Amino acid sequence: MHRIAELWHHYYVLAIVGADYALARRTGMNTSTEVAQSISARALRIMVADDHDLVRQGLRSMLEAQPGWTVCGEATTGREAIDLAQQLRPEVVVIDIHMPNVDGLQATREILAANPQTEVLILTLDETKEIVQAGREAGARGIVMKSDAALDLVAAVAALAQHESFYTPKASQILLQSHVHPLGVSTAATVKLSERERDVVVLVAEGLGNKQIGTTLGISVKTVESHRRNIMRKLGLKSSADLVRYAVRDGLVRA
Fold first, then answer.
1. Which of 1, 114, 217, 248 lies at a 20 to 30 A Cα distance from 237?
2. What is the pTM of this model?
3. Half-sphere exposure (CA, 13 Å, Cβ side) for 91?
């Protein structure tokens, strides 16, 4: 009973917050997310997949409060999400991990197989190690807790629209812990990267920006930038793409 009450609390909050976003836009007020994020007004087509009407209503209201953003379709089952994504080809799909018929992870795999340019954001009630890893392995570029959607949804979709990853600090820490697995003697050991520099390499390879890396590691953006310069100098690399290839080759992250 407690779990059911918790679920409906999340759904209620999403619906109310979505309505508040719409009201704020109509009255000319800035939402907190809009103040914190420099969101481009370019057109963005988003598909929403969740089997609860209240959740879809809340998500639509929050997303369409952003200039140029449109929810081009809604799906209530995993199979419908797969079919609708192939038909509509949205730039971003926001999908609940627990979907009827086909779960959100399998739907993510099939959506990305048919539409590689689409980005998928997974919504979940539980930000566990298993869910974070499964979401990444399915191809999702971001994960947001339903309870935190009012804070993180717009920023997450904006990041995915730029083909950047979005993970909460907790999810980032899970990725950091699960992907540091050197295979034998690595180049990192040879050139003596510090533990902090190795952490930065892993998070860069996961697609996180400097601000998210700083939040995850508890350091400033300037410190992140300094670490990146030092890493590039030590490894003799020229670009972020080189750094990602190095991280995969050296066993710091999975390909």
1. 217
2. 0.67
3. 16
